[in-house]
Amino acid sequence: MSIKSMPLWKWILLLIVSLFLSVLLYGIADIPGMIWSGWPVWIIEVAVAVLMLWLYRVFVIWFEKEAPKDLPMGKCASHTALGLGTGLGYFIVVVGIMMALGIYKFGGLNPDWTGLGNAFFMFLIVAVGEEMIFRGVLFRWIDQRFGFWWAMAVSGLVFGLVHITNDNATLWSSIAIALEAGLLLGATYKWAGSLWFPIGIHWAWNFSQGNIFGFAVSGNDSGASLIQATIDGPAWLTGGAFGAEASVISMVVGLAVTAVFVRRIMFSK
Known about the structure:
single chain, mainly alpha, 71% helix, 4% strand, globular
């Protein structure tokens, strides 16, 4: 039985169950990085990410009686690379604007490779886990049942609201994440037809923000940063203690990039 033709009560029940199982799996997957560090845990975290994606496949086959179409192996490398480039490029633009305004000042490099490696592979787990939940399940199921715009609105809003419990979070920071990240990741998922693209964006988004440019990531200290910078200015421009995600600059850039992909989706029909 397809998601679209499923009785509404069953659709709601299975959506709740699927989200619960996804969150549980995500929580379990985060454990290795909390216990170990260094290259051995990097291997473990890559293996855990692969296992999470395999379990997502099993989950979809179990509930939907067909293999997932959003994990095409032929596009794994190209779409992930495109996502990594998009996520990094996003924050290069944001930081470039902040530098032009004089609120972000370069202060040198500090290449702590072990710390950077720990963060890089930890954020792989974050990206895989959250994209499975918010795009692979929530966005896709709403899109198939109620359409693209409902999927964009609901998944984006929920994605923003779940960050309200983070350290240094405010209602504004959750709204900003919903608009700049929730909508962008939903649009790129729909455009690409695969999870690889938003996984790459999400992965590079967190790592570049926290461990290249030295911001907090969703209110949390992400550890070692390649660039040592002085970030000084009004919170509505810098993002304050929550990080660049709470900056108006990030929101405007995110909405602009989202508009590009929405346009592509609309004109591809």
